[in-house]
């Protein structure tokens, strides 16, 4: 256990201070992704069931007013389903940029070593090169892994909104026939 923690600590030290920023953004990103899936799997079915019960018991007869209420309910559902997707995509965009920042700081360290020692200290240059490459790789890995799930959440939210609009439209048609 301590060996893995030590290896992770060395990985973060080799990547420089930017690795901690990538870690923070990664934790925030995955927390939001897990929260969104939790909402889709646990919360949304309950909310949609309550909405269906409210619409089954509707007795108002004004079709214009019912359509406006339907639009409001669908808009609210869309907002609930897609609420954090924009923030998730912002974090996905931020990760490669943080990796690029790590590349720049690592290259600055390499140039400092070259300016001070010339090419006579390859060990010091290797430290700067690893500081330049590890954050880039880490930022890209976090961004690519989050990208798949953000697209999936967007697709699920759009599909569920469409289904909810269809279900509420069926209730409206039934109410107008009465």
TrEMBL record:
Keywords noted in UniProt: Cell membrane, Cell projection, Cilium, Flagellum, Membrane, Protein transport, Transmembrane, Transmembrane helix, Transport
Broad class of where this protein is predominantly found: membrane
Residues spanning the membrane: 18-39, 86-111, 131-151
Location within or outside the cell: Cell membrane; Membrane
Membrane-topology descriptor: Multi-pass membrane protein
InterPro entries according to UniProt: ExbB/TolQ_transport (IPR050790), MotA_ExbB_proton_chnl (IPR002898)
Any one GO CC term of the record: plasma membrane
Pfam families, A to Z: MotA_ExbB
Keyword Cell membrane: yes
MotA/TolQ/ExbB proton channel domain sequence ranges: 59-157
Entry annotated with the keyword Protein transport: yes
GO BP: protein import
Family affiliation: Belongs to the exbB/tolQ family.
Name assigned to this protein: Flagellar motor protein MotA
Taxonomic source organism: Geoalkalibacter ferrihydriticus DSM 17813
């Amino acid at each position: 256990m301590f060996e893995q923690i030590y290896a992770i600590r060395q990985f973060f030290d080799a990547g420089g201070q930017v690795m901690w920023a990538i870690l923070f953004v990664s934790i925030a990103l995955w927390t939001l992704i897990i929260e969104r899936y939790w909402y889709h799997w646990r919360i949304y079915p309950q909310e949609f069931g309550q909405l269906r019960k409210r619409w089954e018991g509707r007795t108002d007869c004004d079709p214009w007013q019912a359509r406006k209420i339907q639009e409001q309910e669908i808009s609210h559902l869309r907002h609930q389903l897609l609420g954090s997707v924009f923030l998730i995509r912002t974090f996905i965009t931020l990760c490669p940029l943080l990796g690029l920042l790590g590349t720049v700081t690592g290259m600055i360290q390499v140039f400092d070593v070259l300016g001070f020692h010339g090419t006579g200290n390859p060990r010091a240059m290797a430290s700067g090169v690893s500081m330049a490459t590890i954050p880039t790789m880490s930022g890209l890995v976090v961004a690519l892994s989050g990208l798949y799930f953000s697209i999936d959440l967007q697709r699920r939210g759009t599909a569920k909104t469409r289904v909810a609009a269809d279900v509420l439209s069926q209730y409206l048609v039934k109410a107008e026939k009465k």
